[in-house]
Each structure stands twice: as structure tokens, then as C-alpha cells.
Amino acid sequence: MSENLNKINSTPEVSEETINSVMKKYDRESNTRIWEGKPKIAITLVLVAFSLWCIYVTLFATFLEEIRLTSFMGLIILMGFLIYPAKKGEQTPNHIPFYDIVFMVLGTASYMYFALNANTIVNLGTKFEWYQIIIGIVAIAALIEVTRRCVGIPILIVAGFFVIYALTVGLTNPEFLGRLKYLVRNLFYTKEGIFSTPVNVCSKFIVVFIIFGAFLEKTGISEFFIKLANGIAGRFAGGPAKVAVISSALCGMVSGSSVGNTVTTGSVTIPMMKETGYKPEFAAAVEAASSTGGQIMPPIMGAAAFLMADFVGVPYSSIIGRAILPAALYFLGIFISVHLEAKKLRLTGIPKEELPKMSKLIKKIYLLLPLVMLVVWVSGNYMTMQRAATFAILLSIFVSLFDKENRITPKKILQALEQGGKSAITVGAACGVAGIISGAITMTGLANDLINAIVGVAGNHLIIALVLTMICCIILGMGVPTTANYCIMAATTAPILVRMGVPTMAAHFFVFYFGIVADITPPVALAAYAGSAIAKSNPMKTAFQASKLAIAAFIVPYMFCYNPAMLLIDTNPLSIAFICVTSVLGVFGLAAALEGYCFTDMNIVVRLIIAVGGLMLIHPATVTDLLGLLLLLAGLVYLYINSKRNPRDLASSN
Description:
654 residues, mainly alpha, 2 strands, 1% strand, transmembrane helix, TRAP_DctM-Dct_fused, TRAP transporter, 4TM/12TM fusion protein
């Protein structure tokens, strides 16, 4: 996609070498083996066959579910070893070490053993032989190794903690071998571990949507989104930063990686922001915060929307409908901050002659048709999610025929299927490890102990439980991909809030949001660090700046736990309209207070008044809304009057 992005304007761009270097450093998926010639063709065919197999299975397969799940994970292991080397660094073309071949064969064979003997294994109950336990250990070890290679260490640290806890303290069997046998049996041979909800949903829904995203990329939609954002906001004050916010929100709808989104769109927007006059830390932070927000943007939500629908037990359309307002507030907060920063620095926009013409962009609006129809088909219950994704893939191919530059040819179809298969490796492996975490927690009852501990500390004070849960989510979410991130939160932290009386939907949105913001929250802020590498800024300062820009993500989740009406739960159209207006004003107040500028520079007292007013307006209650509105208006009137003493300040705010 970076090749397309580099065609957008004449702004100095980041080199392809730099982009690849940043991706390899902060995105594990980019560290791949080098295949050339016939071996490359063979690997491509494996990935293409996997994608086609997943589409076929989700649409037509009627065989035993255990066969579907084990064969899926077996192929994930096979492709994982073929694509990802054991360590970073320069790779010898067409080379795979002997030990990798052995590990790959043994790991894949372990899953295929289960697939081929599924009927017998399901009926075994607890009567497993030791050779079967050894097969399970090999399968788990292969999954852990593939995950280490393509996802990273953080999620394995979390999984390792829970597994060690189970073997040493959590399980009641007095003998270690007895505990080991019980643990492996439950993690591998039942649906309580690897093959639990995460992998089930991944193999059934998520992979097809990943493939759809790969086809959508081939239509040139990312380039269209950035050009559209330029056309909408580029000419205004600090235009490039606003372009970054809008384009990242749009690209985030189909992207499943905060880091990937940061690097691909940031390679264009960050140099533009720096050239306009934004400081490097601010430019990188805007892109990182916006790209991270793409993971909470409907309709895909980093593929977590499908998992949330399964965990909460509601239709997928209900999840994406309730996610719209919080996501809009998140991006609005960033947009207001970059606008006020531009006014404070007196920055200009992109010259009109350098902007794409909207008349030409409107002619390509048909590129949005697959995404629009996908939402319509699913939300209207016209067809299942996987069938809707399949039809959306076909529609993507059709709409591309109207664009000569991005027409999807047979070669591009193979490339999309290949990319879809490759992207599925990371998600599938992460979901498998998330299943291990969930299984270990369930077997030991640790989740209940954690719930009791936090509820005991919080007492009857919901705010204490929310703060402690937030801290847990940020720690557990550090360096973990979106899908696995949410799976961990749903198993460990969401039940805490449900026990405290928070509606299930609101509890799951709360933990999802705080798991996601770990990508920009120090000390492990991968998206912020990736942005800083492009901007050549201080990584830690960038992370703190990104966290400040994403203030809505730290405030709004608290609000919808106290009043779920913000998630459109138990409310009506009039209340929704009122909540939208007050929330927008509240986010404006918070953003202005944090920026320290509106009409003119603010002193500490005015910043506090406007910040408190903003918080009160975000909280959806009549009394707090009225008080918040009075405080916000009082602060803004004071600033406006004060700015008249400095005509330059007043002029820059118009």
C-alpha cells in the first residue's frame, strides 16, 4: 500500500526503505522469510489455497466442528513456520533451517492427528494415553513458537503466567504429572482452551473479513481515503494534521493493526505535518492516536466486533451500532486538538493547487460500495456475516473494473488471497494463545479470585473498580494484537465490572477501549514508537502526547459505565440527540483545556474551569450537563473577551 500512498502529493515522503525498517522493528508481521522463484510460487499457492479453504469451510462445510478448528490451526502452524523466521535480521533467500522443518512437521501433524481422529477423541472423555498428551504438548509448543515469531513476547508472558500458575498453584491434583496431563487435555483436546471462542470466531468469521480487507486494499481504497481527507480538510489551518485524523479513521475501518496503520498512512501525513509547522512529537502523536482509534472504528473494529458479539450474545449489527458515538467522540477530540494547535502556532493549510479536486474524487465514491453493502447486508440480517463478507469480496472485484489504475486482475486476485492468508496467521495464532489464557483462567478459577479481590478493594465504589480494571487492561494489552487483546480482557477483566453492576455491553466496551489504548500508553506504546521513528521524534514524549490527544478514550468509557445511554442502551431518539450535543461540547472543552488555547492562551484557572465543564458535559445527566455548560460558556466568554486585547489572537481564531 505504501507505493500507492507515495503518489498522493508532492510533499517530501518517507523512503520505502525507512517504511520497511520501521515496520520490521515495531510490527512483527513484517519480519518474514525471503522466498524467490519456484519456492515463492509454492508458498503463494499454500496461502491462496488456505484462503479459499477458509471461504469454503465457513460457507459450506457441515463436518464436525472439531475437524474445522483443528485443521484451521494446523494450517496456521504450517504457514507460520513457512513465513516467519526464528529471529529478526537479514534472511537468506529460499532458506529454512532443518530445525524449523522438524518443528513445523511435528506441530502441523499434531493438529492434523486431532482432525483425522476427531470423532474418536471427542468420545474419549478423560481416558487419554500419555502419547496423546505428548502430541498435545507438541501442538501447544508449536503454537507458542509461531506466536512468538509473528505476534511477539508480551502475549506469551501473559499466557506463561497463567499456565505456570495452573501447574504450580491453581490445579488441585497433588502430583505434577497429573496436573500436567489435566492441563494439556483441557487446553488441546477440549473447547475450553485453544479451540474455544477466539479460534472458533476467527476461523468462522474473522478470516473471511481479513480476506475481504485484502481485496478492498487492491481497489485502491486507502489511497482514495487519504485523497478524500485532503480534499475535505487539507486547505484549512493545520490541514495535514486534520488529514491524518480523517484518513486514519477511514483506513482504520478496514485495518486490523494500529502499528500498520500508523506506518502506512503516517509515511505520507507525518512529513506533511512537519513541513506545515507541527513539532515532530506532535505530528507522530497525531498519527499514532488516530491510527490506534481506527481499531475502535466500526464496522470492523480490528475484528474484535465479531468476538464481542459472541461474548456478549448480541447480533454483530448491535455492536457496530453502539460503537459509533464513542468512536466519533474519540476522533472529534483529536481533530479539535490539532485545530487548536494549528491556531496557536498560526499554521496554514495545504495550498489549493496541491489538493486533489473533489469533483474527481466524487467519481470514485463507488469504491465505498463494498463496505456500505457489507454493513447493510449484516445489519439488516439479509445474510450471515461470512456470506456477506464473501459477497463483499465479489463486489470489490466488480467495482474495481471501473478504475483502470486499480483494476483487480487475476494476478491481483491471487495477491489478495495470498495477503489474506498471510494476515490470518497472526490473528489465528494470537487467538489460539488467547484461548490458552482463557482456558487456564477457567480451570483454576483465577478469574473469580481476581474479581473478588478487586470487588473487595473497591467495596461499593464503582469508580475504584473502574480505575483498577483500567490499569489491568492497559498492562495486559501492552504489545498484544487487537483480537487477542479483547479476548484476554473479556476473560479476565470484563466480569469484574459486570459483578459491580455495570451492564455487560458497557463492561465489554470499557475493557476493549483500555486494552486498545495500550498501543499509545507508555511504556509499551508500539504505535507511538512507530510514529516517532518516522517523525524522528522522542519516542516517550510522542507516547505521552498521543495519550493526551486520545483523552476521549480515557474518559468516555467511564461515562458509558455510569450511564449506558451513551452506548444507546435503554434510551430514545431525543435522549440520543441530547447526549450527542452535550458530549461533543464536553469533548471540545477537554481538548481545549489540555491544549491550553482557545481564542488565546489559557491560564491554569481557566483551563481547570473548562476541563471540569467538559467532564460534566460528557457525563450524560441533566444536572451535570447544565453545570458543565455554564462553566464551559463562562470560560469561553472570558477567553473571547480577553483575546480582544490582542487582535492577533482574535484574527488567528477566525
